[in-house]
Each structure stands twice: as C-alpha cells, then as structure tokens.
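# nightly structure sweep
# worker-07 picked up a monomer target from the shared queue
# config: single-sequence mode, recycle default, output format = structure tokens
# input follows
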Amino acid sequence: MSFLIPTALAATTDAAATTATKSGGNLSFLLFIGVFFLFFYFFLIRPQSKRQKEMKQMLAAVSAGDEVVIGGGILGVVVSIHENIASIEVAKGVEIKVQKTAIVACLPKGTVKS
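# output follows
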C-alpha cells in the first residue's frame, strides 16, 4: 500500500500548481479582454461616432443655394429646406424632394454646372 503514497503527493502538488496557473490565467484573460475592448473602441466605435458627428454637423449647416450629392449619386442645388425635407434642383425647372438625411455630401460652389 505504500506505493500509492507518492502518487497521492504528486497529485496534491499538481493541484496546487494548477490553481496557481489558473489565477495567472485569469489575469491574462482579463488583460486580453481589456486589450480587445480597447482595439474595438479605437478602431471601430470611435471612428464611427466621429463620422456620425461630422454628418450631423454637415446636415445642420445645409442651406438654400448649397450644392449637394444625394444618396443615389444625383447632384443638385438645394432650393429650400423645410424641417426634414429638402427640395433639390437637379436640372433647370426639375426639382425633387428628398429627406434631409439622403444628402450625402456638400460640394464646393461651382461643381454643378447649370
């Protein structure tokens, strides 16, 4: 029966080593999760919120006479804006009404030629 004693001592020693490794493993896991979250924040969340803020400012600044691009790639000049609807002249005498959020970009003056 004495031949079982070294095995029992070895098992106890392995259990203690495993417990020590698990506590270090938890710390490295938390560190990994923290780095992963920072990666997502700086490369996905922050740039997207920055783009949304810029878009919101651009839409707030749009006024009559501005040259804009609409979501489908249509170029035109803003004739009037009423709350969330913008009237855009795409050709002489041709106006379309679109939601203000359909405006993708403001162009420099003179881009749309009459």
